[in-house]
Description:
Elements: H1 4-14, E1 29-30, E2 39-43, H2 45-48, E3 55-63, E4 66-69, E5 88-91, E6 102-111, E7 125-129, E8 153-158, E9 173-180, H3 182-188, E10 202-205, E11 222-225, E12 228-235, E13 246-250, H4 251-262
Antiparallel strand pairs: 1-9, 2-3, 2-5, 3-4, 4-7, 5-6, 6-7, 8-9, 8-11, 9-10, 10-13, 11-12, 12-13
Amino acid sequence: MFTLVVIVVTAVLAGASPSGPPKVIVGGSPADTDTYPWAVALSSRATYGSARSGQFCGGTVIAPTKVLTAAHCMFDENGKRVDRPDLAVLQGRTDLRTTKGREVAVTGVYVNPRFEQSAIDGDWAVLTLADALDTDSAPIVAQGADVYAEGSAATVIGWGDTTGNGDYSSTLRQVTVPLISDTTCRTAYPGGPYGQYDPAGMVCAGERQGGKDACSADSGGPLLLDGTLAGIVSWGDGCAQARKPGVYTRVAAFARDIREAAGL
Length: 264
């Protein structure tokens, strides 16, 4: 997720200056890439070092050579596009400390041309891979689909911070959180330094009392509703705080453009 807190944590993750404001799973449980074969980690060892395979964001395979992620993963905290020549995706690697699975170079990055860095609006990008991944692709929610009912159980997965204090996970984790009403999200994020919620392209999820959330380095990963890709980890105020739910890109608002960008 993209927040002021996450920017600071990213510097710790990288061991260098921040090069993208990523969001790990707080209050979750272990997961496995055998269950989520289309879940991938974005990697740049040149930027983030070799620990945890250089992971800094997440993504979802939507076609053999296409990965959907968050646009803000391609920018730094100053809104500048970051060039990572060694950018790659890791597929089938539940534990980032191993060499299991595949590591495939990214040869192209398509960022939503309407992405607004200052508002974190339209937060999606499609990556093109050098080689096809031999795995299932995640089903994407339909354009305009009315699937975001308040209280619906959503699953978020990622390799990010597990406490909100920079305790990054080396293994994939998952958490189930309820969708939050647009009214509640507008109240949580009315504007100002912690962002403004816009239901046209965003959806909120989290426990009212906090304790469960995506966090730093989970950015770009999937939010699933009944096994369908319905959201992308985007931003929020800190991690797992009471009355500060996580904010996700509303995939149904952009599904047509995403499919076109991916050639689907």
